[in-house]
Amino acid sequence: MSAPRKVRCPQCGGDSLWSPDNPYRPFCSKRCKLIDLGAWASESYRVPVQEEAGPGEDGAVADSLFPKA
Q: Cα 19–24–30 angle (5° rounding)?
């Protein structure tokens, strides 16, 4: 059997063992796992969204549908 793989803990950057013996993987400890969970729960991690203008918000769609005489 090969030695357990060492990975970097996503929270603290320390070494973490990637094996079934580590119940917190990919984290190195329960503390790091809970810090990450808290960040998700408080919405510290967000996916950036670029909102597009809807019909009529900028006038472009309304002008193209109803040209001025």
A: 145
